[in-house]
Structure formats: C-alpha cells, structure tokens
Amino acid sequence: VSSEEMLDALDVLGYLSFPACCTPDLLECAIPASLRPRARFSLLLLGPKARMALRRDTPMYCQCCFVLSGCLQVRMLPAKVAAETLEAHVGDLGCAVAPLDLFAELPTPHRKLQVDMWCAEASEGDALLIPPGWWHQCESPDGLAVVAMAPFITEAAVP
C-alpha cells in the first residue's frame, strides 16, 4: 500500500490544502514529470521519541508537512550548509542524508557550523513549511505523530 493510498483510505486527502503563501502551486507545470515524486503526498508515522535522519530534499521545491495527529518537532539548517560539512551522502537531484543528529549534543567538529539552527514545533492541524534545499530532521516528542508531506513550488521559487 502506498502512502497516498493510505492517506486516501484515512479520508484526509480532500481536507489537505496548502497555506495561502504556497499558492498557486506550480509543481506540475514547472517541474517535468520525470523529476517530480511519484505520489503527491507521502505519509510519515513516528512513534514516541522517534526521529528521522537529518535530510535534505531536492532544492527544486519546498516541502509542506501537514500534521494530522500528534506533535512534530523539526530542527533545520539553512540550504547554504554544504553536504560535505555534514559528511552527508548525496543522491539524485541533490537529495542528501547525513549522520548528524540535530536533537543530540553536536559533536565537536559540527559545533563550528557557523549557522543558526532553526527549531519549529507543529501540532495537529498545523502545516509546517520547509524551504527548498534546507536540511531538516523531525522528531515526535511524546506520542504518535501522523504527518502528510507534500512538495510544492511557488512562482517565486520556479527555477
């Protein structure tokens, strides 16, 4: 079962809409189909104290995290932080994953990042926007968190 099929079964897709600052969404007309995700939405389920890896999505578009249930804490680093600085593995379209845990105490080499870490918390019903190319790591601080994630692009961000 795909994430989108699961979200459809939960009957939530019809209720998800991007915040006004994210519209009009030009993803389908600005990005070729071969460079877009296979599904519009992906489902993220995090148990208590569960963390995702520190990652960077493709710099071509933004991400919107719709918190359907629970609470989500997100720590972010600006796009200007180089993958090499984080010892990250870079994949297709500039996506990357790094071994660094932004929720733990930073090891000595990473304390010199010379950038501010951004922190955000979103609760049920909130939408959290992650700018293009930003590093982000999510955690569910207490109970289960259910999140629908979707890429989008606005006119200001069209390549």
What does the model show?
By secondary structure, the chain is mostly beta strands. The chain has one domain (3-157): Jelly Rolls, CATH 2.60.120. It is built from two helices and ten strands, in the order ααββββββββββ. The chain has helices at 3-9, 27-30, and strands at 42-46, 54-56, 62-69, 71-77, 89-90, 96-98, 118-123, 127-130, 135-139, 145-152. The protein has a six-stranded antiparallel sheet with strand order 5-6-2-9-4-7, with no helix packed on it. Strand 5 (89-90) and strand 6 (96-98) form a beta hairpin. The longest helix has 7 residues, at 3-9. It is globular and about 45 Å long. The protein starts with a helix and ends in a 7-residue tail after the last strand. This is JmjC domain-containing protein. It comes from Pyrodinium bahamense.
Which word captures the global form?
globular
Uncertain spans, ≥5 residues at pLDDT below 50?
none
Strand order of the largest sheet: 5-6-2-9-4-7
Instruction: Find the CATH topology.
Output: Jelly Rolls
Helices, by number, come to: 2
What value does the average pLDDT take?
85
CATH homologous superfamily placement = Cupin
Give the tally of structural domains: 1
Give the N-terminus to C-terminus distance in angstroms. Answer: 33 Å
Binned strand content: 25-35%
Give the CATH level 1 class.
Mainly Beta
Structural class: mainly beta
Specify the biggest β-sheet: 6 strands, antiparallel
Work out the radius of gyration: 16 Å
SSE sequence, one letter per element: HHEEEEEEEEEE
